User: What shape does this take?
Amino acid sequence: MTSRPNILLVVADDHAVNAVGCYPGAHQVTPQIDRVAVEGMRFDACGCTNSLCAPSRATILTGTYNHRNGVTTLSTEFDNRQPTFPELLRDAGYRTALFGKWHLGHGEPHDPRGFDTWEVLPDQGDYVDPEFLLPDGSSHVRPGYATDLITDLSLDWLDSVSGGGDPWCLLVQHKAPHRPWVPAERHRDLFTDGFKPPRTFFDDYEGRATAAREARMRVARDLNLEDLKEEPPTGLDEEQHARWALDRYLADYLRCVVAVDESVGRLLAHLDASGQADDTVVVYTSDQGFFLGEHGWYDKRFMYRESLESPLLVRYPRLVPPGSTTDALVLNVDFAQTFLELAGVDPLPRMQGRSMVPLLAGEDPVEVGWRTESYYRYWEHLDGSHHVAAHRGIRTHDRKLVHYYGSGCGQPGASEQTTEVEWELFDLVADPEEMRSVYDDPAYADDVRTLTAALDRLATELGDDIPEPTHPPTTKAGRP
Ligand code: CA
Assistant: This one.
């Protein structure tokens, strides 16, 4: 590393690993995004700490878990008086900007802070002719497609800071490919041939906690007309209808991804043309993962793999070996401290992640003592539309323990309805698709004991004591 690099952070919304072409088995729709992996590092186990838009964004900005930054659910707004990495970079002389989705509340004390300039969508925003909010409190409608407009704003700002001077940090935060998956006109004819359903598409939810069966995010049942854009053909049987809904859903989702890929292509071309590629850290990621029909679902929230894990690709030619990969258990809570170290800025004591710079330099995760277990907590208990029970859990390289701790999280918007306290344990080696909990299997009794203790220890270490989950549990998960 030489002088302080520029930082380009592109955060898509709900972009699944399985829709980023450089990941094994993924839909091949992202040649430009894949270029970041070819020329940099692909993270194969990047988790989030709470698989939901606003909570993840708060974690990325502050380097803290949601019990510390306060954004535990979609209805808990961000208090911008807490420090963020862009603000710390700005204090250190960086030029900073943010364009696109914010989704952490508006007005004071919720607006973006720590940026020289910003322009953001109100809440989720619209795909077509979206309104943008401005720092002076005004707003305006920009005609066009949201992904293109966010890219245009970003390129205009890059033009304004190119040509020397202090380094810059730009956050490009796409709305896409978030529901309701409205593609750009130019992409409406893509993907009309249909898709092969994922192996777990016709999941019957046996062998897992009742939360899986009770969730309302089934492609075949819960997508609405706004999502599907058209009524189903008449005369379909149940399986044919499920396949039709999956094809409709995936076609529009992936069309939205194609526009995001074009955006990344334009940003990379700008860095090439302006001679900044070697001096810029390019990061491509998403705020969480997403189900693309796995387990029959769309959406996220669960601690299952497709929802828990995000794409994370990093290019920085002065540090990162091209074409490299790592299976280190990194988290979105690590991003802030990584950017700060790259910029030579000290992290704050309240931050709870760890700089990924040694990993980016190609060092072995074992030798650098990287974490071998990660903590997760989904707080938004049984929300009205998706109905996923609150849970927490611990994930290691080969095991995942999940604890549905019932109601009592006391969060705004949470249902009063209680659910059973249940546990799941997955053997990620024997069962990578997480189809059968082995929590009640005597062969895994040692794992249950060890991981339950580790989960409590992690929660204590991280200061997550809001509130004490019901414990010890009675289990009904994993019944044959
Ligand atoms: Ca999201």
